[in-house]
Amino acid sequence: MNSMYSLRCVYNIHLKYILKYHVLRYKSNHSCKQEFIVYDQLMQKRRLQSKRSVLVQVCSENSCSDLYKYCSEFGGIKNMFHYQLAGTNHFVLTEFEDQTAVDALLNDSAHIEDSNVIAVRSPFLWFRSSSSKKTKLIMNNDMVQPFKVNEIMIEPNIKTIQFNKVESLSSQMMLLLESIQLNDIGSRLRFLTAIQIENALKGIFPLSKVLPFGSSVNSFGKIGSDIDLVLTNDKTNINKSSRLIYHGKCMSNNSRTQTQRHIELLGDLLQLFLPGCSKVKRISQAKVPIVKYSQDFVGVECDLTVSNETAVRMSELLYIFGCFDYRVRPLVFTIKMWAQQVNITNDTPGRWITNFSLTLLVLFYLQQENIIPPIQTLVKLAGSNDVHITDDGVNCTFLRDITKYSHKQTNSKSLEQLLLGFFEYFAAYDFNTNAISLNFGTVVAKPEYSALYIVNPLEVHFNVSKNVSPEELERFRIELRNAAWVIDSSIHSQNTLQLFDIFKSIEISKNIKKQNIFNYEYQTNTSNRLVTVKDLFVEDEHNKRLNTQLKNSKERKI
Ligand code: UTP
Ligand code: MG
Questions:
Q1: How far is the CA of 226 from the centre of ligand 2 (A)?
Q2: Ligand 1 pocket, 193 CB below 6 A?
Q3: Which of 289, 434, 517, 526 shows the smallest number of beta carbons within 10 Å?
Q4: CATH number at residue 518
Q5: Which ligand 1 atom is the nearest neighbour of the CA of 226?
Q6: Does some domain include residue 357?
């Protein structure tokens, strides 16, 4: 997980610019399409913003005023955000009005006069203290404080969210979303992290473009979650009329070997030359080869891949679904948080369900509720501008501007009802015979054996959740039943329910029992997932109890 840090945001009140955190103000109607921006336009907006920005390390927040004056010499400043990482590192993300100011500032900036340090041009700088008395005097003469400082949380700590101050479970779900959803500053820093690599490669590879994808941009990202980055070639602006063409080398025939070598090379670049990049690990043997590294100035872990265009388009698809209805995001965030808390997901890859698969399950459930459409509806509505086929032939054609999708929302269920509905739906789901297809929005027969089968929405011959073992699926079902039972029994007893009540796993209660008897220590690591025959028996008894409770409560409802 990423290092913990607190973030303060500073904005220039002279500019009367009111900072909007990336928390959507949900309207009481059932759509947030009014605020919808087409994915590629949003990417472009964020990229331009990051090209107008630099990240400057400073001694403390007291340097903000000084830095503001210094940077203003190069052009108008639009925004400044101050944050502090764990320890004493203070940073100011400075956004200019115009990219030319950044170019001028970078041209004027100096490199360290130490032959051991390799000079690199990047948007990451540090602000040395002013040594000249004259400069100090000028600064002191004009000590207007042009900033207002706001403190916001960057690493979500759900224990600090005051769910008890909000009554209904639905409102608590909205509060959870607002508290942990990736915010504006988090997004800016992610795009700047991408720009650092892009700029480093630009000189020799002028078409290279580095884009964040996955939860950083699909609208389901949490503050502090890892950044997925992809290096692609942007061929949109090639001058087709020029008679002079650059010579170039052909790629090798084996694209996988080629990708692995590129990953090794990128790993070296990050490790040897790029400031702030540490803990570089090249995982070139993985199905999708990646370089893992930590960007210390931003305080996040990054996964860099090459030419993974389908994953980018998948992020777009998820982004679109996140914008369809105001209930999609709070439900996805609550389910992801529940899964993390009850220990059925894990940050490391393994035989357990991933956040991505879990998100698809929530979306599938919302298709059953008619809140979002099947993908094939979006494919049918696609216009000529929506046609998109990746270099490796994957058809990613679907309607991209959902304001063009007219549909009267007839489902008015509350978030609480949908949360219970999700748990009940999958607790009773026949995973043995059925696969999940978001393309049709229906269950389909499993084409091959896999404990959990979710048809990959863009590459329909693949199973997104092939990694999930039968044991992990069983744990998932047990936790689903437990959560359904907790909500259901609170409805019948008319007790006010807190989200924290749902976030307690059945395994924890079982382990607490064990602790009392055998003085066992509860561990959240994966070794918990090794069970003895006795444990399985206990589980069975427990399942029986839950099943009876569920059955009884359903009968009561009827
Ligand atoms: P991640 O596993 O990192 O998921 O895959 P995520 O959505 O970013 O969630 P967290 O926050 O890290 O847990 C990154 C992206 O890669 C694509 C999806 O777009 C996903 O969001 N992907 C992943 C696929 O296209 N297919 C897969 O099988 C897995
Ligand atoms: Mg991710």
A1: 6
A2: no
A3: 517
A4: 1.10.1410.10
A5: 12
A6: yes
Please list all protein residues whose beta carbon sits less than 5 angstroms from ligand 2, which is an ion. 214-215, 228
My answer on whether 285 and 160 are in the same domain is no
Query: Per-residue pLDDT tens for 112-131?
Result: 988 888 999 999 999 998 86
Tens-place pLDDT, residues 232-289? 998 888 899 999 999 998 887 778 899 999 999 999 999 999 999 999 999 999 989 9
Ligand nearest to the CA of 224: 1
Pairing status of strand 124-126 against strand 77-85: unpaired
pTM of the model: 0.84
Closest CA to ligand 1's atom 14: 214
Same structural domain, 493 and 362: yes
Q: Does residue 225 have its Cβ closer than 6 Å to ligand 1?
A: yes
- Please give the full DSSP string across 95-141, using - where no structure is assigned: EESSHHHHHHHHHHPPPPS-TTSPP---SEEE-PPP--HHHHHHHHH
The finding on whether 352 has its CB within 6 A of some atom of ligand 1 is no
Domain residues for the domain of 131 are 2-181
CA 156 to centroid of ligand 2, rounded, Å: 16
Asked if residue 151 and residue 42 are part of one domain, the reply reads yes
Q: Which numbered atom of ligand 1 lies nearest the CA of 303?
A: 3
**451 within a domain of the structure (yes/no):** yes
Specify whether the backbone of 16 is left (phi greater than 0), alpha (psi in -120 to 50) or beta.
left
Contact 381, 400 (CB under 8 A): no
| Domains: count for the chain | 3
215 lines ligand 1 (CB under 6 A): yes
Distance between CA atoms of residues 53 and 193, nearest Å:
11
Cα(93) to ligand 2 centroid in Å equals 23
Distance (Å, rounded) from C-alpha 489 to C-alpha 487?
6
Query: Hunting for tokens 């500032």 — which residue is that?
Result: 105
413 and 526 part of one domain: yes
Q: Could you give phi then psi for residue 335, rounded to 5 degrees? A: -65, -40
Element (H, E) at 300: strand 300-306
Q: Is 309 in the pocket of ligand 1 (CB under 6 A)?
A: no
Q: What is the DSSP letter of 215?
A: G
Q: Is 354 in the pocket of ligand 1 (CB under 6 A)?
A: yes
Largest CA distance in the chain: 83
Pocket flag, ligand 1, residue 311 (CB < 6 Å):
yes
Q: Are residues 279 and 357 in the same domain?
A: no
**Residues in a beta bridge with 293:** 302
Please give the distance, rounded to the nearest whole angstrom, from the Cα atom of residue 44 to the centre of ligand 1.
21
The span from the CA of 426 to the CA of 406, in Å, is 29
CA 481 to ligand 2 center in whole angstroms: 27
